[in-house]
Queue: 2 jobs
Job 1
Amino acid sequence: MPKKVTAQVTAQVTAQEVADAAGVSRAAVSRTLSNSGYVSAQARNKVLQAASALGYRVNHLARGLNKLRSDLVGLVVADIDNPFRSQQLKDLSEALLENQYRPLLIPTTQGRDSSQVIDMLMRYSVSGVIITSDTPPAEIYRNCIRHQVPVVLINKADQHPKVDRVLCDNAKGIALLADFFRQAQCRQVAVIATKEGSYSIQCRERLFVQQMADLGIRTSVIRAPKHDYQGGAMAALELLSMPSLPDGAFCTNDYLALGLIDQLKDKLSPSRFRKIRITGFDDIPQASWLNYQLTTIRQSTRDLAAAAVDLLKRRIDDPDLEGQTEIIDVQLVAR
Amino acid sequence: MPKKVTAQVTAQVTAQEVADAAGVSRAAVSRTLSNSGYVSAQARNKVLQAASALGYRVNHLARGLNKLRSDLVGLVVADIDNPFRSQQLKDLSEALLENQYRPLLIPTTQGRDSSQVIDMLMRYSVSGVIITSDTPPAEIYRNCIRHQVPVVLINKADQHPKVDRVLCDNAKGIALLADFFRQAQCRQVAVIATKEGSYSIQCRERLFVQQMADLGIRTSVIRAPKHDYQGGAMAALELLSMPSLPDGAFCTNDYLALGLIDQLKDKLSPSRFRKIRITGFDDIPQASWLNYQLTTIRQSTRDLAAAAVDLLKRRIDDPDLEGQTEIIDVQLVAR
DNA sequence: TTGTAAGCGTTATCAA
DNA sequence: TTGATAACGCTTACAA
């Protein structure tokens, strides 16, 4: 009599116990709870009832082991503290949860060896990976692909036939900003970029300089050491030392703009400060703060997250899909 | 001939393959790689060599299934976008990684049913849970304890004989601030708290009011609708409508202070603004920005994270430990 | 439509 | 010190 009602110490309810309670086989329980295969309505009901009565929860470790794929999704993120990134992280993790995936958070720093990251991902048989990290993620996604793990890149230049990408519409955003500077009748606009820019930063700098040239507006590029508040503040000092003060400043992201604004306000009289039109990109929460009132380009991190998870899901269902690129719409927020 | 060298499709290397290559049993491989049980130096070396040659990685799903405990740790966080929280999240996830745990990120919102959270945690046999969420986490941690899952609470009031807590030293911080206002010879200090405060907010409000009373300084409490920038801005309006303008304002956290400052600067002349001493609590990055230069109390999120993970580790090793409370030191940052 | 049984990759037990 | 072997809890052919 192979009746094995091992009363677990951990009070962990197993599919077998549910099966026993419902008077069906363990297989029927599995079929019911994973919505696969044939189950009669009657059996189904009995299972569902027994399951909820016993407080049964599918063990995802076991399921993952069996299917060779867990529903964990690696979330490779750098610079978590950075207003734009933390927004993104929030929306991404929520989008994953809504789609029955679970975010396995992997913070990366410049220093950390990327092979460790790959290791972690593989050890958990993640069913996908979303990368927003700035560090060249090539090594990471190549390895993922070797292991048949779907990858989605967010705001990255890298192209690969088997990875999907989500990009915000930098071209449209820059066009809107260029038009803004044109309407404001600016003559000379400083472009605040960074020494080692991320894809977005570089792309925006290039597009902007080009468009301004088309409009016959002069630009001069200032490269801050880092793309954050301090970087913006330092760029401001450089801007102030220019032979003639520009009447416009385009910061390749909002974070830079905040530092720039504060530094300029600190060093210039209110009237001279007001003569400089400043814009950013991203529309982080701070851009709307009273002290900044920054004109910028909004890219919805929610849409971004939704698109990323959607692409991931599609590729999980069909791993042989061609790599797609989804462009997220942007709007001008004039303040 | 039970030779089973199933060349995996996914190129997933198994312990069996390593064992075969090393000419030992699967058990020996396991013992070597988990540092448990007896293995001769010779066998050990052969295993290690074969493992690295084949690129073997322990399957943590299988390990977790077997041990009834994964090395995943639930990170229950609310309000990810919020400068202080995202710092905390960053440091926590890094601390977990350093200790060979993996953060399973679980964002919570006021609305979300906490039973879903518990579900997720249980389904993955997490070996612990760290909660920083503001929503009353009682239901979550009670369930965790029922399932023998160690819990660490960060900056939460809740007491329970089996959960550990990490708290920042609010009492010391408030004492430092009280002294600051005394030295500045303030007569009337506004206290900016919130309607439904988190533990920290409430605790700070109470302590501060009490200490100021001891020093004979008048206080009046203003409750903002939310503890964020907007909340601070709204509190400022209320402050401005007071019969006599206070000469000090203590914000129960920095985030509120930023909104307060901006709103006051906007509505008051520079000279009148300067007459009000403003302080915050937490020392978020923005506190040091040029526009704010906020005097505040620094609590190190790194220390906090380190303490939390340490407590967790200890309790995982010995689940029957009494609940401990670790207090994190704070300093005054005068700006 | 159902149940049996064979894995999934580990670790733990126990006899050798 | 070693190596079978039995779990861990689930999914899924396959047979009934």
Note: The CA atoms of residues 230 and 259 of chain A lie 6 Å apart.
Job 2
Amino acid sequence: MRKSGRPTMVDVAADAGVSLKTVSRVVNGQPHVDPALAARVTASAEKLGFHRNALAASLRSGSRDTLGFVSADLTNTFYMTIAAAASAVAVGRGMQLIIASSEEDAATERTLTLDLCQRRVGGLIVVPTAADHTYLQAEVQRGTPVVFLDRPARGIQADELLLDNRGGARAALAELLAAGHRRIAVLLDKPDIFTMVERRAGVEEAFAAAGLTVDERVVVADMHTPQAAREAMTRLLASAEPPTAVFCANNRSTIGALEAIVAADADIALSGFDDFELSRLVPRRIRIVDYDAGELGRRAAELLLQRMVDPDGVEPTTVLLPTRLVDRGREVRPRG
Amino acid sequence: MRKSGRPTMVDVAADAGVSLKTVSRVVNGQPHVDPALAARVTASAEKLGFHRNALAASLRSGSRDTLGFVSADLTNTFYMTIAAAASAVAVGRGMQLIIASSEEDAATERTLTLDLCQRRVGGLIVVPTAADHTYLQAEVQRGTPVVFLDRPARGIQADELLLDNRGGARAALAELLAAGHRRIAVLLDKPDIFTMVERRAGVEEAFAAAGLTVDERVVVADMHTPQAAREAMTRLLASAEPPTAVFCANNRSTIGALEAIVAADADIALSGFDDFELSRLVPRRIRIVDYDAGELGRRAAELLLQRMVDPDGVEPTTVLLPTRLVDRGREVRPRG
DNA sequence: CTGAAAGCGCTAACAT
DNA sequence: ATGTTAGCGCTTTCAG
């Protein structure tokens, strides 16, 4: 037992009267060890309170037993659901997941990502915030597989796992148009965000397919908070020709719009992208573009693990995860 | 450049024509290096695409630059908010947070926790699921500080950071009693969970303080899902003598109870422990026992960092984080 | 089946 | 201000 206070394999070997290598074999459950010796080693390890130093092990063996997940927002349930699913896959293979978050800051993303590389993670799942990812190119070439999630990456050849943003929005709008709605408001977050570009394109496509065009006067962008969406919706409802339907391009917009609609007791159809907690409790029947976030995380982790085993398996691919339209909320009857 | 494909400090040193140690100094930003040499080293490092191996560094130096967070449920926003706050503190000090989750399984918790110890984390934040934590005693004594979060730990001397569960419940009940309510339903999750024991005790204390006793006929336990709570609430509302108020001991119960109340359009006061997303959108005015989850995470991380610096600072303590009663939801006027 | 020696990539402790 | 040497704790040869 050294100054560090922590027993090492050398200490265990000395105590058990065997060589270092035998301890290593026993600790790692390798075969071809005499049961009697193994028992002695186990007993010594137990007695001394030995715990193998995983850092030293992977330094020497070059094995990588952690995955890194760089989220864009730690408190966003969407990303955390993904992380949970990815973590489960990793733990199922005896690995662990380090979760970090850029909090939507490109510089932070870069720092955290390179930091994880210095920790020699086996692979990275990244929700990209940075506009350019050439800084990762070298790492990828040196054998750290990277999967980009939810948003595409630029300046780098890597796997991407995205939602079918365009198809989901198109389906929602097609349904509203089929129901006869023409004056359909659209609430968007920052219009340069990838998902917004795609969802807006889906809206356009649905209108085009119906031989119609979007009424730009009721398209509102930069709805980054529910509050902004609520105010915009309130204004739309109070206008001379209020829309008969609204499409909210993310759940924050949906929540804000709903607050306005409920407060004004307006008769308006609502479809929104992204489900949210308590959507079933909303006092209106609404339609939601839903998807399986956990599936996204599972697929990302599995893709990573596969790339770790077989780096040059197939070309990097972009996978689009399908969405589906579901009912949420319920009509509330008048009180008293 | 070796077979591994990754350049090491030795490679950089050779390229720059300096010694290994000089490279180390430059890479780590240590003083007393001739600017000219430093520039040469930086250039070589850049050229070769050198990235310091953090594993090797901390193996040699014995420094610990990750913290471990063992959650009980990855998709629970409460724990993730805590993790986000703890992560921010860690990153602010150049460390990172490894997040794992026991998913409420004691054996998994043990495995993950010991695994993190083998990775030589600097400290651990644990939401305990296991009934006994003597298995961590040895690690704590060897210098890995552990902070238990949200629930107390047994069989071990360590810091605990808990919510004032009892006080929060007592305040909610005191308010209902002061408003004249007497027949107050109580919806509890599994009654042997620590938080439930405490919150229930708070309920009892409020009744006792008012010289009254809890009406056990309207106390329902084992409400683990919103569905269960909804069914229980529906039954209570349909009974001969329905309660005039209900206290829900966690947000899942609150959500389920609300569904039943809204569906039945019942006139009943509701107070619930834990805020939840969209609580402001609920079509009833309700009262919530709220608290600052982020503060819990920040305090946990800071406590850990302090213990890392000064292991024998003060005795392990139990901190109770205060709660407050807030208004949520809004009355919805009848439609049409 | 077991062991001795070498070394993963880095930093600490000492030179110089 | 720079370099040399040793060694963190483990796994990987390679020899018995």
Note: The domain at 165-291 of chain B is CATH 3.40.50.2300 (Rossmann fold).
